[in-house]
Amino acid sequence: MLKQIAENIYRKTVPLPHNPLRELNAYIIKGEKSLLIDTGFNRPECEEALRSAFDELGIDAVDLFITHLHSDHCGLVSKFAKEQSRVFASETDGELINFGSGNLYWSMLDELFIKFGFPRADFGRNTDIHPGRQYCNGEMVKFTTVAEGDVLEYGGYRLEAVAAPGHTPGHMCLYDREKKILFGGDLILGTISPNICIELCAENPLRDYLESLAKVGQMDVRLLLAAHGTEITDMNARIRELCAHHEARLAEVQKILGSGWKTAYMVAPEMNWDISCRTWEEFPAPQKWFATGEAISHLQYLYFAGKAQREEREGGYWFRNA
Ligand SMILES: [Zn+2]
User: Fold this and answer.
1) What is the model's pTM?
2) What is the pLDDT of residues 13-27, one digit of tens each?
3) 71 alpha carbon to ligand 1 midpoint, in Å?
4) Domains and CATH numbers, the chain
């Protein structure tokens, strides 16, 4: 569905087949030169959806703004970037997107998860079906790097780049200060809590994320255009809910740690998950990955806050309450 949100701003819901997120909101700002914000997976269903939106709007070439490195946001970059197109992303996520198109990124990420206790034996089936790997862009992209405060102008909007790391190390939003509109990517979602997961260049992603929420919470936003779900009109209420969610999660993880030493992979199955599986064994492989990533980010937060101890044993990290 293509929906006009404001003057020259359109939202296209792009299907994400067989994915719990179900849809991505791609935003198109129509102007002399138009801007596409996020693309969907590198899958034909996503490409068709975007092409039909472009046809409906009479748009041919676009510039692209990629909020972050996840493949449901950048999978089709190379299919929609024409020779004259500029493709904007933060330096960090731009580099990770290009690095992620090769196998080295994924094997390094595997090693990182193994360091936190994820069983090496499970990796074949996990990473092979990881949607980020399966539907990534796959080609090198020449990014135009954007940093905090850089301004992009499209369709009568003056969009400032806002660095909002946490969900990914180089996650970026776009903000029109005068019209009080924020294109938030996956920073704040209405119905689900964005996955906060360890990444190659982020040791403490939950701290980064909470700092990003605090920073954006200071901004005057009338309309938050999120990359999944409906638009959010009371951003600060949602920020309070997300902060409370992570506070509760941190308390839950401390309770699970109890008095013993545990790895993140031992903590994850004991956390509460909003998923229709009775046991950890029933979790689909990618969900085990995301759950473990969440456990890691909360344990690392506790460790860097001095609330948990971390010890390296046989090449892996173990945690206990401080
Ligand atoms: Zn994401």
Assistant:
1) 0.94
2) 999 988 888 999 999
3) 8
4) 2-240 (3.60.15.10)
